[in-house]
UniProtKB/TrEMBL annotation:
The lineage of its organism: Bacteria, Pseudomonadati, Bacteroidota, Flavobacteriia, Flavobacteriales. Coiled coil: none annotated. Residues 59-103 form the DUF1508 domain. It comes from the Bacteria. It holds the Pfam family DUF1508. SUPFAM superfamilies: YegP-like. This is DUF1508 domain-containing protein. InterPro entries: DUF1508, YegP-like_sf.
């Protein structure tokens, strides 16, 4: 699934997660949420238009950058082996067409304040 959220600086980003909820890649920062939505729409619409450029860190971890026309749109998480990296790419190409989009970018928290959740626990101590 694609998950849209806000960074601490107010910019938007999205991540693509596996079926198990693990982040596969994170987008670049976008000033507008609509930019995230347009990029997601393009990726889901035709992943074959995008390039997966594989790289390695000096410490031997493997990652890819997702780009289109030479412009980097996202960077993957670090993988321990080239095989795991390829599995991450394969998961994207297999599930991107049916991926849901979740939007957690609203300023309003979906969770109640901490004080409300733990009020009974502190009163009983």
């Amino acid at each position: 699934m694609f998950v849209i959220s806000k960074r601490t600086n107010g910019d938007y980003k999205f991540v693509f997660t596996s079926r198990k909820g693990k982040t596969i890649f994170t987008s670049l920062s976008c000033k507008q949420k609509s930019d995230c939505e347009k990029i997601i729409e393009a990726i889901a619409g035709d992943i074959s238009q995008f390039t997966f450029r594989k790289n390695s860190t000096p410490s031997g971890k493997h990652f890819f950058r997702l780009s289109k026309d030479g412009f980097i749109l996202a960077t993957s998480r670090k993988y321990s082996t080239p095989l795991m990296l390829q599995k991450g790419i394969d998961e994207i190409t297999k599930y991107v067409l049916t991926a849901e989009i979740l939007d957690f970018s609203a300023d309003k928290s979906i969770f109640p304040p901490e004080e409300e959740v733990f009020a009974d626990a502190t009163e009983n101590n």
